[in-house]
Amino acid sequence: MIRIAVLGAGHWGPNLIRNFHNHETSLVARVVDRDERRLALVRTRFPEIEVGTDAAPALADPAIDAVVVATPTSTHHGLGRAALEHGKHVLVEKPLTASVRQGEELCALAASTGRVLMVGHVFLYNTGVRRVKEMLDAGELGRVYYVSMVRTNLGPIRMDVDAAWDLASHDLSIVNHWLGAAPLTASATGGTWINPGIHDAVFATLRYPGDVLVNLHVSWLNPRKTRDITVVGEKRMLTFDDMNLGEPLRLYDKQVTDERTTAPYVDSYVSFRASVREGDITIPRVALGEPLRAECDHFLECIRTGRAPLTGGPEGLAVVRTLEAIQRSMQGAGREERV
Question: Which end of the chain is less packed: N or C, by CB atoms within 10 Å?
Fold first, then answer.
């Protein structure tokens, strides 16, 4: 039985407590939060769990095997470092840290202590995202030309990080996983309307190896909740709509063919149509599941077996590197920055 301390019982913390307090492979022994009202809710729901406002006793407790950090981004480095120094395995919510330097330190510390360091990039445990990865690895779309990703909603508006660090971290983890690479450069622009110095909407363009272009649009100031991705390949195209729980994937048998007109330019509708092939639209079957449950189970498995996590420290650090490049680009009026 793996004993866990959860630091942070706010927006996401209760879901982590519910999944880890399963009494089969793990249980939550302690919950820490500075807000007594949140702790009162934990006491009501889980009276057997010890709660407190100070993380130090939980970190020093030799009976605690792992620590889950679900606190503001600015605290990830300090709490994660303290947990690793006390010999605990660590699952930290995204993003890994608030800077590349901090992330590098946590990765080095996890390696030197032999402890699991995992980042909560929960979308990589989504069955639809995994199915797309299988398609791409099998070459079903052919060479990937570009990826368009939109993630918007009306709130929640963060005070500690901007929309890129809060929302784009999801999409960066997904596209890095799909392409098996990190971006080479980033250019971005953003808008600030609610809180000074914090971007409410960000538009970013990333260049990946193989001349793959990725465009991101993230905003917490939008009337519609959207989680939509389009992948355009040389053979086929697909869309992933995470808001459509029953049928999130569409695979389009469409492409631009080599059967073009011999004239130096396309001067008729017939010759234009000859260069475009449109086939069937198929809806791959995607089994339903709870990504967070799969993520938590994976963390426990990595602790038991010692295997490297799917979303480990290096993967989390790659996302932070890109977020820093996006931040530098916005500060430089959208100039292209090397990641």
Answer: N
Nearest to 99 by CA among 328, 307, 317, 287: 317
Instruction: Return all residues near 308 (Cβ < 8 A) that are at least 6 apart.
Output: 302
Confidence (pLDDT) at 270? 55
* Phi (first) and psi of residue 124, to 5 degrees: -75, -5
pLDDT band at 265 (very low <50, low <70, confident <90, very high): low
339, 186 Cβ separation under 8 angstroms? yes
Which of 88, 94, 133, 235 is an active site residue? 94
Is residue 327 exposed (0-12), middle (13-18) or buried (19+ Cβ within 10 Å)?
buried
Does residue 223 have a cis peptide bond before it, meaning omega lies within 30 degrees of 0?
no
pLDDT attached to residue 280: 85
Domains of the chain in start order, with CATH, are 2-122+292-308 (3.40.50.720), 124-290+321-338 (3.30.360.10)
Place of tokens 């098996």: 180
Residue 297 tokens read as 């189970």
Question: Could you confirm whether 94 is annotated as catalytic?
Answer: yes
Listed in order, strand segments (DSSP E) in the chain are: 2-7, 26-32, 50-52, 66-69, 89-93, 117-120, 144-154, 185-191, 201-208, 212-219, 221-233, 237-241, 249-256, 276-282, 337-338
Per the structure block, which two tokens stand in for 29?
Answer: 């022994």
Report whether the peptide linkage leading into residue 95 is cis, meaning its omega lies within 30 degrees of zero. Answer: yes
Alpha helix (H) ranges present in 88-152? 100-113, 127-137
Dist CA 68 CA 9 (whole Å): 11
DSSP class of residue 199 equals -
Separation between Cα atoms, residue 37 and residue 1, nearest integer Å: 29
State the Cα–Cα distance between residues 287 and 299, nearest whole angstrom. 21
Show the CA angle centred on residue 309, arms to residues 149 and 158, nearest 5°. 45
